[in-house]
Amino acid sequence: MRTPKLIIGLLVLVALATLTAPSAAVPTAEHRGAARGKVFRGWAFDTCLTPPLRTMSAWRKSNFRGVAVYFGGRGRFCQKQPHLTANWLRQVDRMGWSVLPVYVGSQSPCVLVPHKKKVRIGRDAWGQGRKEGLDAVRRANAYGMKRGSALYLDIENYSMAKWQCRKPTLTFVRGWNRAVRGQGYVPGFYSSLSSGIWHMERARKAGFGDLPQALWYARWNGKPRAHPIPGVSPQAWRGASIHQYRGPKKEKHGGHAMEVDRNLVNAPVAVLR
């Protein structure tokens, strides 16, 4: 009879799988320590519409040295960005600004933001994620962002209650990351602490690959802390994290006013030609 041999063979396979499976307790090399690329440490702001160069020059009088730009994605609220050009990026780079590129792609099936529900992830979450990841790379390259640049996928707050929502969201994010990393860019991820960020930490503990190399968490508590991220292992995403600690508020610097979110950054940014 072959039954004993079959059982022994199965036991050997199980043992090998146990030895080779990623540990849930220890961050993988993909998420341990700083992500590759140019790293910025300091204060950054984000605002829906890319500011004109004269405003960027005036805001040099603030404590900000980083700026987020919404460079693409079907879920981007300010689709028209008249000031955002390759030349704009070169000019702000020369002024001493670090740039955080944000791509607002398809959103979770259970997204909580009303105006994002029209751009929810479809049936082929992996394929859609890869397609949008390649679009992000194409747009970044057109704007003069070199390989090694971080590109941040923006997934707004969503419900974590249903498996039918969690699975396609994670699959989409992983597909996007795979495509971005495959082209030599650094995939980052922006979301609410209580949904997307904790979702990524749960996936890391479960041993999933193709996760973001940098995390940008929204928690508007007015207490800036880039690392450690609350609820996330202090060994994970170290040197690759951002805290958006305050929501929209009008500020004025150098005679120019804007409504901005505030962020504390210790993470990779764009590398410009």
Automatic annotation (TrEMBL):
Q: Where is the Rv2525c-like glycoside hydrolase-like domain?
A: 57-265
Q: Which UniProt keywords apply?
A: Signal
Which named protein is this? DUF1906 domain-containing protein
Please tell me the species this chain comes from: Streptomyces mesophilus
Task: Please state the span of the N-terminal signal peptide per the UniProt entry.
Answer: 1-25
Family annotation (InterPro entries): GH (IPR017853), Rv2525c-like_Glyco_Hydro-like (IPR015020)
TM region positions: none
